[in-house]
């Protein structure tokens, strides 16, 4: 089973890119982030024509997450990260697919830091950790998938000294991420490629993609019940070089049966 995550940076504006990648990569399950589309504007017909069923949590102009599956039923568990009933941002959706709990998330950016957006990010991380711990207690296969907006280590960013004050790399954020992983989750890409330089995002400015000045911020965290099934993975880096593409590249893992 091939599972992918892709921050599309506008699902309608970059629909052609998304559909081309789906045809090329043929993932079985896809988690999308940053749809930038209200609920009624999600391109369900085009996604269905490509062979995928979908559930999504949209929001006008900003945020938005979706889960796609090919030839499998998607049983939605819930939408919206528990812990704050006043949080209306569309950043989180859960579903069961083929016996696996798939969590698609789009963690807040948090900039500028310090400030209210950074405080929201830290609280969101605390809520995610609480939900993740609850999911682990069920002892079922779970995957936390998406754009975490967290650079875990210096190995995961080009010239880390330039990012020390950024909300993606601040000490508080990295520590929160490491506490989350320490619950028992496996960082799939880093497990597969322990020493390699791997980026999943390249800014549009200063020829970041051409210089390979990137970040690794799109992650798969696997619960103990499924981490042993991890067979391979990678980044479809070339998609970042396509015309009118997202500033993220699709990232994927493959699980054994």
Describe what this molecule looks like in 3D:
This protein has 257 residues and is α+β, with helices and mostly antiparallel strands. The protein has one domain (2-255): Deoxyribonuclease I, Chain A, CATH 3.60.10. Helices cover 24% and strands 26% of the residues. It has helices at 15-25, 44-49, 116-136, 171-181, 188-192, 208-211, 224-227, and strands at 2-7, 29-33, 53-57, 65-69, 75-79, 92-97, 100-106, 142-147, 186-187, 201-202, 214-215, 218-222, 230-235, 251-255. The strands form 3 sheets. The chain has a 6-stranded mixed sheet with strand order 3-4-2-1-14-13. Helix 1 (15-25) links the parallel strand 1 and strand 2. The N and C termini lie close together (7 Å). The relative contact order is 0.16. The model has no long low-confidence stretch (mean pLDDT 98).
Structural descriptors:
7 helices, 257 residues, Deoxyribonuclease I, Chain A, alpha+beta
Radius of gyration: 17 Å
Assign an overall shape: globular
Helix content: 10-25%
- SS element count, helices: 7
Flag low-confidence runs: none
Order of helices and strands: EHEHEEEEEHEHEHEHEEHEE
Our measurement of the CA-to-CA distance between the termini, rounded to an integer number of angstroms, reads 7 Å
Question: How many domains, as an integer?
Answer: 1
């Amino acid at each position: 089973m091939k599972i992918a995550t892709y921050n599309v940076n506008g699902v309608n504006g970059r629909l052609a890119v998304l559909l081309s990648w789906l045809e090329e990569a043929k993932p079985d399950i896809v988690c999308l982030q940053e749809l930038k589309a209200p609920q009624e504007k999600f391109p369900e017909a085009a996604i269905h024509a490509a062979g995928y069923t979908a559930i999504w949590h949209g929001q006008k102009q900003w945020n938005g997450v979706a889960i796609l599956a090919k030839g499998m039923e998607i049983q939605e568990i819930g939408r919206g990260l528990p812990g704050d009933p006043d949080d209306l941002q569309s950043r989180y959706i859960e579903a069961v697919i083929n016996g696996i709990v798939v969590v698609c998330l789009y963690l807040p950016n948090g900039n500028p830091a310090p400030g209210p957006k950074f405080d929201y990010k830290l609280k969101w991380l605390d809520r995610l950790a609480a939900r993740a711990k609850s999911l682990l207690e069920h002892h079922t296969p779970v995957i936390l998938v998406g754009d975490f907006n967290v650079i875990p280590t210096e190995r995961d960013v080009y010239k880390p000294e330039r990012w020390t004050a950024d909300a993606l790399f601040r000490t508080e954020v990295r520590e929160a991420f490491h506490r989350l992983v320490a619950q028992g989750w496996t960082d799939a890409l880093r497990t597969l490629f322990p020493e390699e330089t791997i980026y999943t995002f390249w800014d549009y400015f200063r020829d970041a993609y051409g210089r390979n000045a990137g970040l690794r911020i799109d992650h798969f965290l696997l619960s103990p019940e499924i981490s042993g099934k991890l067979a391979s993975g990678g980044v479809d880096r070339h998609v970042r070089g396509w015309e009118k593409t997202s500033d993220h590249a699709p990232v994927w893992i493959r699980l054994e049966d």
